[in-house]
Amino acid sequence: MLGMAKATQGFVVIGAQNVFFSITNLRTLTEIERGKYPIGLGEDVFVNEVISPETVDTIVSALLAIQQLFTDYGVETIHVVGSHSVFEAPNAEFVRDQLLNRTGWQVSHLSLSEEAFYRNQAVMARFPNFEAVTQTGTVLIDVSSGSVELTTFANGEFGFSRNFSLGPLRVYEVMRDVQRTEPNYVEILRDFIDSRLIDFMRLLPDDVTYTNMILMGSSLSVLETLIPTGQNAVAATRERFETLYDQVIHASDQFLMEQYDLPLNQVSQVLPIVLLINRLVQTLHSQTIFVSNLKLLDGVEINASLVQGYKAVSFDPNEEIITSAQNLASRYQVDQKHMATTVDFALTLFDRLKKMHGMSKRDRLLLQVAATVNDIGSYIDTHLHYAHSDYLIAASEIIGLTATEHQMVGTIAHFHSSDTPQTDLANLPEVNAVDRLRIAKLSALLRVADSLDASRQQKIQELSVSLRPDTVVLSARANDDIELERWTLALKGQFFTQVFGREIELKRRNTR
């Protein structure tokens, strides 16, 4: 019973329009309670660009009610997160502090990439026949109040993900004056949406047809009376959706309210949602549209289950993170052979030197990501490419990383080359001391790994690592002279010695 109680935890997601909550057994991913409280925060964020005291009061009331429910159920472990749109407001950190003082709950800030990661986990774990559906090209569209996340799948695997500020509430607030003054509002709105989708369409592979479309997200409650979602998902044909589209673009607000029993505050979002989906259906030539009632909350639950070691789902979530990093490397045309070699050496060093560095599996993943993307700056200029890599990583989305981890990857990439940081990384005041040490250790390992293919000719075919009291000895089986690699390691390995207190040397074993 004690183990069962520990597995049952509480979850709260604060979004732009609702506070969602659940009580879930993480061992079985069975929900005991689930619900939501409307808060209307979106108008504050997207129009007034500040969260009002009245809205804070509403959020506090919702959290206190949820808190009482959790207490009644005896829930002790609670996860409270705020969506990215909540933290767009300039006073968001002040609000977070107010919520902490008034409820005792610390609200964690989800980045866009974390939100996309969690939603994908929700779909992979709970969408009916997900693997079978995604054998053919499938695009997942998550519609929240402030943004739309588009994610592609093919052959049952994750492709790539992009986020756009096209959430229906945001679009409505931005275009409200246009709707009032322009008679051809639908055409203007269509052009506005198309202009934002151009980048996504450009990135789509030419050899994949996206036959299937999965719709999900907090704002799809607007569509639930238009296209019922059922228990988890229901398929609508393209023809059925086009009929709905034709009806909506010609309907008055009064008609939509009466025909679909929609409240007035949701009617304004119907046209942006339906128009966005129609443009994607037309462009991607999707034939089957699945409408799912899965939410970000589902993904937060599943991630917690995976993190705590329960085997409620069978997939490896890290595969998405790695694929996302590989996509970024491909976009900036990195040398694939050198990248693969560097990744292999970096992970070999990490695994063989675990007693020395004492880092975690998550650190190993961050090293793998950094080794994958560290050379993307060469796309801009090979001179100071490591600095270019840093800002390109900062400006890009690597799905599944926290904001801190994203910054860490950029910094590790920056210091993988000859640009040596201060030994204690005191020049990174925005990073705490623990993470600075992680950055230093991972940068030192990546420098060594990169040095071992300095010639970019993959001369070293096998690497063994020996840890001695004052030295790390690398024995390489090579098919050619490796003097350049040895010279480069002598230069770039100095930081390794500073960090770990051991010299590092490279020896060659001849091939037979």
TrEMBL record:
Pfam families reported for this sequence: Ppx-GppA (PF02541), Ppx-GppA_III (PF21447)
Protein name: Uncharacterized protein
Taxonomic path: Bacteria, Bacillati, Bacillota, Bacilli, Lactobacillales
Cited PANTHER family: EXOPOLYPHOSPHATASE, RETROGRADE REGULATION PROTEIN 2
Entry-linked InterPro entries: ATPase_NBD (IPR043129), GppA/Ppx_hydrolase (IPR050273), Ppx_GppA_C (IPR048950), Ppx_GppA_N (IPR003695)
Family: Belongs to the GppA/Ppx family.
Gene Ontology MF term list: pyrophosphatase activity
Ppx/GppA phosphatase C-terminal domain sequence ranges: 323-470
Domain Ppx/GppA phosphatase N-terminal residue range list: 29-300
